[in-house]
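Dear colleagues,

As part of the handover before I leave the project, I'm documenting each prediction I ran so the next person doesn't have to rerun anything. This entry is a single chain, and its sequence is reproduced below.
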Amino acid sequence: MRDKRLLVVSGGSLASNFPVAEFEARVRFVTARTDEELRQAVREAEVLYTWQIPENVPRESPHLRWIQLPSAGADHIRQLPVWESAVTITASQGVHTVPMAEHFFALLLSLSRQIAPLVRAQSRGEWVHDTRQAQIRLVELRGKTLGIIGWGKIGAGVAHIAHAFGMRVVGTRWSAPVPRELEDQVGEYEDPPWLEPTQKGPDTVYPADRLGEVLSQSDIVLLLLPLTDGTKGSFGQEAFGSMKRGALFFNLGRGAVVDENALIQALQEGSIAGAGLDVFEHEPLPRSSPLWSTPNVIVSPHIGGLGEHTRERGAHLFEVNLRRFLDGQPLLNMVDREGGY
């Protein structure tokens, strides 16, 4: 009979801030550095902390009770046998909020302040001061409405920063049964008469089936949806047609949620003014994709969730959950198998 539970960590996933010594009396830690080591180690594991789950789970892992994913999403394991098993799965929603929110605003400001054309002009040694002649349109965020599609933990972080810019925020949330007004948590900067207060309505979260209402009033649309059977390809021609003409579109959720042909058509026809994309249906983005060369599109190689402290936050979340597991308490961030995320 085993006197310690066995924790398997794939490829050194735990950051250095994880307090291994505090658990050693109750847990034996094993690091699997190769695929074969991982396949062997899961045969005795009771807890697994890894992004990659080997194909012999759960068939050859009779003791396995819980898997903690370092990722926020679980779409990469929905086709694996473990998805249909009784093994508890938790994810790391929330640990990517800071880099994701900052990355979104980096993309947004790059488009609204036309940074890419200015950098190209710099490479030519060209002083572009007459922005009208150069057809560079500079847009202020103050007073604009931001629509967050899939307003969860990351969306809350984005909304917090948006308020400081003086923006109104609306969005959709699956758990919202009816539209609900929210209170501002951060006040905008005002300095009358030099800086006027904005005339904007209240922040409002809508049910997911009221997507059209959110899109029609949003100057900027941010997609943060997970990939499920219900969301795959769901943001297509009808959704782009519901957006304000000249709105900006951003996707930092999952690439396959968007119909990329419909996105390209909306960009080429000018119905939307630009896009900032961190995720794509096929990654890496194929060289043949028109998105590489479409004006007013910024391509980012799925790095929105990466930051200097992301791994430490993930390790801290796992620490909290491991304590809860050992004490028989409910775990945080349980994966909803029925919902698919």
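The chain has two domains: 5-94+308-326, 97-299. The chain has a mean pLDDT of 93.

All the best with the project,
I.
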